[in-house]
Specification:
- The chain is an alpha/beta fold and about 300 residues long.
- The protein has one domain (about 30-300): TIM Barrel, CATH 3.20.20.140.
- Helices cover about 35% and strands about 15% of the residues.
- It has 9 helices and 8 strands.
- It has helices spanning about 65-75, 90-100, 120-125, 150-165, 175-185, 205-220, 235-250, 270-280, 285-300, and strands at about 35-40, 80, 105-110, 135-140, 165-170, 190-195, 225, 255.
- The chain has an 8-stranded parallel β-sheet.
- The protein is globular, with a radius of gyration of 18 Å.
């Protein structure tokens, strides 16, 4: 399956020295109607025993989280639901929730790559209520070695995701950026989405290496980045967004709120405010791509 075109129209490139400062206005008119929040988590009672929800820091979100909660925080547009549940029953529940709401534009689910028969797993998911909204498969690659993709079961699974016309979504640390570049190069028809800009260190210590690595990844035209889950001060957020824009162009950059995880780090509307601030000096076409157009194209909405 061929990758969707990166952009039907060219988007003018950014000035590499133009980084908006924290004092600039954050309101960008006209975005809310076509807004797509590309990174939203919801869950029910089934996820509350997950190990990552057991700490004191996570206690405020250790409860059922629904679309109404997200809508109250974001208030407009549509959502891409990204699974936080790596179980088969969890995927069925997520798809059923998506089927019940027109505000869900798509679902990024999970399959067990190591178990094999990924094509059958995907067909099974698509046969469920809401299966038509399955748009991608997410895998956490945190800590995997650089040869992860060479494993025969993994390679067959990636090929099955590509053949199904679904996005491969990668949750990684910055150290795995070269690995993602290799995956994208080996499967040029596979649309790859990297969560949270690849998780650069919040203190900025690895920023020079991160810039080099996202440049390497950007050379693969089938890779997209999510401007999500950063939780850094406004100035650093703007610098990261600007570096991603220079490397990828806005046509391969999409915004996501990372709700409700974002609420652990500040106000629920913090990611929306920061993204508007960072993109305040971008062209209208670039803003439209960041806040909806890129997600619509990457996920084939």
């Amino acid at each position: 399956m061929t990758n969707p075109p990166v952009g039907a129209e060219s988007v003018s490139g950014p000035d590499e020295t133009s980084v908006p400062g924290p004092d600039e206005k954050s309101a960008i008119p006209g975005l809310t109607r076509d807004l797509i929040d590309s990174h939203v988590h919801i869950w029910g009672e089934e996820l509350l025993a997950a190990p990552w929800l057991q700490g004191a820091f996570e206690a405020p979100i250790k409860r059922p989280i629904g679309l109404d909660d997200w809508a109250a925080a974001v208030g407009h547009g549509q959502a891409i639901l990204v699974t936080a549940d790596e179980t088969r029953p969890g995927q069925t529940l997520q798809l059923a929730r998506a089927a019940a709401s027109p505000r869900v534009a798509g679902v990024v689910g999970w399959v067990d790559l190591a178990a094999g028969q990924v094509a059958d797993q995907l067909a099974d998911l698509k046969a469920n209520p809401g299966g038509d909204k399955l748009k991608g498969i997410r895998q956490s690659l945190m800590g995997v070695d650089s040869d992860w993709w060479r494993d025969p079961a993994t390679a067959a699974g990636l090929a099955a995701i590509e053949a199904a016309g679904l996005v491969f979504e990668a949750l990684i640390g910055a150290a795995q950026l070269p690995l993602v570049a290799q995956v994208a190069e080996c499967w040029p028809g596979l649309t790859v989405v990297i969560d949270h800009l690849g998780n650069p260190a919040r203190g900025g210590a690895d920023l020079p290496q991160w810039r080099r690595d996202i440049g390497q990844v950007a050379a693969q035209p089938n890779v997209y980045l999510k401007l999500s889950g950063l939780y850094v001060p406004d100035q650093q957020y703007g610098e990261l967004a600007h570096a991603a824009r220079v490397a990828f162009g806005a046509e391969r950059l999409m915004w996501g709120s990372d709700y409700p995880v974002a609420t652990l780090h500040g106000p629920a509307d913090g990611p929306w405010r920061q993204a508007q601030l960072a993109a305040a000096t971008w062209s209208a076409q670039e803003q439209a791509a960041l806040f909806g157009g890129t997600a619509a194209r990457a996920y084939r909405l």
